[in-house]
Amino acid sequence: MGRxxxxxxxxxxGLGGLLVAGSLGFAALGTGADAxxxxxRTRVRYWNLFSGGxxxxxxxxxxxxxxxxxxxxxxxxxxxxxSPFYTKLAMAAAGNRAPELGVxxxxxxxxxxxxxxxxxxxxxxxxxxxxxxxxxxxxxxxRGVIDGKLYALPLDIHVQLCFYRKxxxxxxxxxxxxxxxxPVTSTTEWFxxxxxxKQAQKKGLQTIGLWTNDQNFQWWxxxxxxxxxxxxxxxxxxxxxxxxxxxxxxxxxxxRQHVTDGYVVPGAPTGEQFINGAxxxxxxxxxxxxxxxxxxxxxxxxxxxxxxxxxxxxxxxSFVLPHQTGRGGATNEAAHELAAYVVRHALQWAAGGHIPAxxxxxxxxxxxxxxxxxxxxxxxxHQATEPKVWFAGSTGILAQDLGPLVxxxxxxxAGPASVARKMKNQLVRLLASKNPxxxxxxxxxxxxx
Length: 449
Description:
Elements: H1 8-14, E1 42-48, H2 52-68, E2 72-78, H3 83-94, E3 101-105, H4 106-109, E4 118-119, H5 123-128, H6 138-143, E5 145-146, E6 149-150, E7 153-154, E8 156-165, H7 166-172, H8 187-200, E9 208-209, H9 215-228, H10 245-260, H11 270-275, E10 280-284, H12 288-293, E11 298-302, E12 312-315, E13 317-322, H13 329-344, H14 347-350, E14 355-356, H15 359-362, H16 365-368, H17 373-376, E15 383-384, H18 397-411, H19 416-432
Parallel strand pairs: 1-2, 1-3, 9-10, 12-15
Antiparallel strand pairs: 3-13, 4-13, 5-6, 7-13, 8-10, 8-11, 8-12, 8-14
């Protein structure tokens, strides 16, 4: 059956201001530079956005695959993180220049015109290589399903965490018999914890790092606590905004109180202060290697359920199949085999702090020994995710539009109630706007939404 393809001109026009000068030419770095010239039977081009520690861990996993599968040559390319990556991937798919395999944040998949810029996974072929739906958290697997087909194969979930210094909390009497932070179930309990920690901490440091002036982190934290309150975004048909301004105001007032009560120093380097002795910092799980390398006596737990319900912000790195005309044959099978291999051998990936999506990994003795990963693995079961609409996802329009509003409230330049109303107005505008990838609103996208 034929499919309506998007050509390069449509993508360039639809991306609007997202395309930056020279983005077509930015470097693609990788460890398989000689793969296309090798004598291997099958060759797979793989684009990802992993740098730093994540990049090193991914390279190690790819090298293991190469050693075990000498008949498959993998050419991996690491591209610039964020919008430039998605721009290049979209143009490659539209221009029939796409790699066999790619990586995307799960939240961006719904807006990437699945079926036009992305090809669906062959779940039977994945099963042959040892990866099945039953190996996943059901909610996580379903996030990658659109119109009944799997378009995103989850590799992990990465979450926002509450990191804490055990040495400071012990001094403050805030550690339980198990050596972990005492449970917190309300805003009153949380601010009591901060008060006691402040009395025990070093002078000259903030009590908690909240990234108060960073729109991405503030947005991620908002999604988590708004979800804890049971807040909704849209109705099932994606035609009506159900955003609750009263609940949003509660969350915004909660953030603001950290500043007004003196627990946060706006603009302070959160990670550095934590390493230097600050009791708490809220960071992504990717900070685990940094804090472990600093040899800190610390722990990490999902964001505290101060509104009575467990929920911490979560995104997911996922494997995707960028659209290729006539996709199939040996290269397509090799792409499935490579993705399945990495998913099943994600213990190396867990070293970077990410929670492996392949649940059999979580029950292994090796994973259970990882600290503090074994303390926050429960976040898999209470993920707070952005709504499944085209304008959501990591570095997406939703965060770009609403994140600065959250910052303005936290920093005190606008009142929480006023900001909550502005957020709702923005959601109304976004719901009526059209996806530049296919010209459809969230409602017109049907099951995509």
